[in-house]
Amino acid sequence: MKRHSMRFYNMILALGIFLITAGFIMFILSPGGTDSLFMTAWPVVGMVLGAVFLYFTLSFTHNSFHFFLGIFCALSGIFFGLVTSGVVPKTLHEWWPASVVFASLALLASGFYKAHKLRIAYTFPAVTLLLLGIVFLLFSFRAIPVSFKSFALMFVPFFIIISGVFMVVLFLLQRKYNQFYVEEDIEESEELEVDDDVFFDKGL
Known about the structure:
The protein has helices at about 5-30, 35-60, 65-85, 90-95, 100-115, 120-140, 150-175, 185-200. The protein is mostly helical. It has one domain. The N and C termini lie far apart (about 45 Å).
C-alpha cells in the first residue's frame, strides 16, 4: 500500500477546512441576512481566522493556545454569523454572552487536545467561564427579573467567598494529584534543558 507524505495529508486538511469555512461564509452571505457590511464581515473574518489557526495548529505548531484561538474564532464566527443572517432568532445585543461560553468550550477543547484528557488546569477556568456565560445570558434575555447591577451588589461577596473556596480546593487537588500545570510549558523547559546539555557536551 502506497504511503502518502505529510504534505499530502496537510493539503487534505487544508482543503477540508477551506470547504467548511467557504460553506458557512456562502450561507451567511446569502440573501435575507443583514444589510450592514460590518455586521456581515466580522463573523466571516472570525471564521477565516479560526480556520487558519486550526490548520497551522493541526499541521505544524501543535500549540494549545493556537488551538484555543482557532476554536474560539471559529465558533464565534459561525454562531454570530447565523445570528446576523437571521437564522438564529434575537440579536447580537442579547447573544453577546455566548462568546464567553465559546471561550470556555475552546479552553476545554485546547486542554484536551494537548493532554488527551481533562486536566484541572484547563477544566477549572473553563467551567468558571461557562457558568459566567450562562449567568450573563440569563440577564441578557431578562430571564432574571432584577438588574445585573443589583444582582452583582447582592452576590459579589458570596462570589468572592466561593472563589476563595475553589482556590483552596484547587490547591489541595494540585498537591494530591499534581495536575494543575500546563504540559506545554513543562515540555518547553525540558527541551531547553536538553539543548543546554547538548550545548555543554559539545563544549560550545
